Each structure stands twice: as C-alpha cells, then as structure tokens.
Amino acid sequence: MNLTRIRLVSLVALVCAFIPALVHGQGLISKQSFGEKNEIILKFSAEVNKAQAANVSNYSVIEEQDPDIRLELASAVPNYSGDGVTLHFKQPLNTAKTHVVTVSNLSGDVKTVVKVSKPYLGYLFSILISALLINNFVFTKYLGLCVFFGTSKRKTTAKGMGVVFTLVMVASAMMSWFFFNFILIPYNLNFLEIVVFIGLVSLTVQAVDTILRKVNPILFNSFGVYLVLVIANCVIIAVPLMMANNKFNLFETFMLALGAGGGFLLALYLMSSVSERMQFAKIPPTFKGLPIAFIVAGQFAMAFLGFSGLQIF
Prior knowledge:
By secondary structure, the protein is α+β, with helices and mostly antiparallel strands. It has eleven helices and eight strands. The strands form two sheets. The protein has a four-stranded antiparallel sheet with strand order 1-2-6-5, with no helix packed on it.
C-alpha cells in the first residue's frame, strides 16, 4: 500500500514538474513571420540568452511539404532587446509554402515547434497578382495568342472580349472546381478531367453566346469567330488544370481565374491601344499585320519580365 502511494506521489510530482516546462516551451515564441526573401523573424514571449539565440544549431527549419530537406541557415541575429531573432538563410525562401521552425536549448531542454506562413488573405491576393502581372498568361506563358491577336485591333472590341473572357473563365473555373472535387475525385475519374473541363467551358461559352446575341448584337458581331474559339482556348483550360494540379480550394480557384481573366483583359487593352496608334504610323510593308503585332507583343513581354520575383506579402 505504501509502495503504491509512493509511486502515485512520484508520478504527480513528475507531471507537475513537466507541465510548466511544456507550457513555457509552447509559449516561448509569441510571433513568427517572414522577413525579406531569405529571412524568418521570431518574436519571443520573454528575453532569452543572446548567445544561445545566435547559435544556428539551436534552430531547424523545413518546408512542411518536404520534411526531409532541412534548410541551411547562414546566421541568427538577435535583436537589441533580446526578445527576438532574425534567421538568415543561404537560399531564398519559398514564402508561398508553410515552413516549420524547431527551436531548442533556449528554454531549458524543451523544444518549441512553430509554423510560419503568409496571412491567408495575403496568400489569396498573391495568387491574384501572380496571375494578373507576374505570370501573365499572354506575356509570360504565351497562351491564348489566337484570340489575343484577333480581337486586339480596337479598344471597344478588346474591352468587350476581355470582360466576356473573364466571366467565362471565372464561371467555368468554379464549375470545374465543383466537378473535380465532388465527382471526379470521389469516383476516381481524374483521367477525364480535360474532357470534363472542356465540356464545362463549352457550356459556359454557349450561355454567353446566347445572352450576348440578345443583349448586345453589335458587340457579338464584332467578336466573329473568336468567341467560339474561346471554347478551346488554352488559357481557359489552363486555369482548371492548375486548380487540379495545385489542389486549390474554392477561394484560391476564384482568385486564380479572376487574375488570369484580368491579365488577359489587360493584355488585350494594352495591345489594342498600340494597334490603334500603329494605324497612323509609317510601317514598312513587310512588317504590316502580324509581324509588327508580334514585335509589339514581344516588347510587352519583356516589359512584364520586370514583375518577376515581385512579392507583396
């Protein structure tokens, strides 16, 4: 009986001694965020030993999706007050992914594990900006050039096609996300995704064709055959394929589709603005038509390279 009581008391004492250390370890880091392209900033809940905080061996950082690859630290720089540290890495970080930071030897023998990621609203906005500017489907991926060159001769036609294109892209992407997540995946029909996505795009274009024919016949006639070509446009198909490949949720798919459509509208408007000016320019006969259009598009593409590496969040 006495032996049992002694064991029970010892167990209670051990738990009481362990809980505070565990709580202190979990609460060691009060805030974490990305800094520059190769930095992670940690804010401690209390002042720590600066010498220990500056020891890079006390930190282990990995990407959540690649737990076997440990990221190399160049240095750890504590701040002046000793309640924070900035981790500098030898290579730029992919801030679009969640990073896992393990901190040891700063609070006894307890390890603290925290995850560092972008704010979700910032992540959604980064998807929008990426599809709109950084990875513009026309100027950086060279997709949809048939419709792009065919409807970018006048601003009115370009704006109308850009708006219609964006509406079709958003609507088809939303339906593609629903079919992919609730029909194709549950029934193991992923191999039919391209056929299903093209069918959904065709359904959306047909609906827009019917509505536009009744609402604005002049704009409908100005599109000509290019409205039908939207069905097989590679930009339209690229969005649901990227959604399926990256396993985006509904909000991320919407931002991707909106950014891709907005990027296409921007490309059409820029090209149509230059095309209207070129009608009064002295262009050599051999460069008139598509040759000068390709040259201008190439110049726009080089200009859009300036957005490469842009990070807002």
